[in-house]
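Need tokens for this chain, all 229 residues.
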Amino acid sequence: MSKRLIVAIDGPAGAGKSTLARRVAERIGAVYIDTGAMYRAIALWAIRQGIPCDDHHRLESLTNHARIEFLPGHGRIALNGEDVSSAIRTPEVATAASQVAAISGVRKALVTIQREIATHASVVMEGRDIGSVVFPDADIKIYLDASTDIRARRRAAELAEKQIQVDFNDLRQQIEERDSRDRNRAASPLLQAADATYLDSSNLSPEDVEEEILRIIRSKTSNGKVLVS
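Here are the structure tokens for all 229 residues:
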């Protein structure tokens, strides 16, 4: 009998979570949920509304009134009916998203949405606390990591494709600062769940990591089969 499958992929910024989660979801026929994009959407709205990232009350209210939808296509997301897929990918929004994500009220509201999605379909969900907080009973847990330099190079290349030029050293520093905020925040800090499989993608191609994650999924599901709804 098939059942809904939950695959949780956690890790720091730039480790390749979004790319791998999307590819794995396509391979097993599950829904891909980019939780980081959800926090970026809230951060974008806050910036547009001129709400400071330390105004917890207004940010919680903003989140409770936000309408976030994942659109057909690779990593597309809408905020209140507007496709903001490109707008949320700037360094400014990334920095704000890390600060917004540290607010417990914001996290609580978005976690509710994330859990609701998983009640209707098999999902591959990536973020910072999926295996530790959002879905502590996930069927598969992966902690995807890479060195700081590799992650900075990947992010610089990603931004360059979008014609966004950044200074490498500044970007590396931003990633280090974000890592520190994510790991030391009081609300759902970034950490590897005790039962998660650790994967270092520094010297691996996306194809190699994808196959390794699929191997882990096969090894942990009944009779070596991936069971999806």
